[in-house]
Amino acid sequence: MDERNVINGVGAVVLSEFIDFLYPLRFFLLAAVVLVLVDLRFGIEAAKFRKEKIRKSRAGRRTINKMVDYLCWILLAGALDKAFGIPFDIPLLPALVLLVVYGFEINSCYGNYFEAHGKKVKVNVFKLFAKKTDIIEVEEKKDGKCE
Hints:
Layout: H1 2-22, H2 26-49, H3 56-85, H4 93-116, E1 121-123, E2 136-138
Antiparallel strand pairs: 1-2
Organism: Parabacteroides goldsteinii
InterPro entries: Phage_holin_4_1
Main location: membrane
């Protein structure tokens, strides 16, 4: 009986520390789930537009893989915050790391959305931070007309 109490106590301490670590990152986790599901939806629409066969097993596998990847990035951002952000007083370090990672996913969502609607448009959210503020580029056909 005493062994069970010790194991439960150690488990509670370790789990409470892990929850304290994840609590500030909860909205990043929510954003990752939303971005992956939006990209899945628009990716399926884009594949239907291209008349590709939709394989649920592959889509599910890629979606779960993305979720695991984003969980790893979120944990890394949290660890960087604990290691460098707090000691060097950089409170936005996890947000900056995840802004870059989520930027690629946002580009993918926009690309799939416009492709599903038959438009040749490239979106680069990173141009928001450059001198050029226009993040949308419409690709022209060879005859010079826009789609």
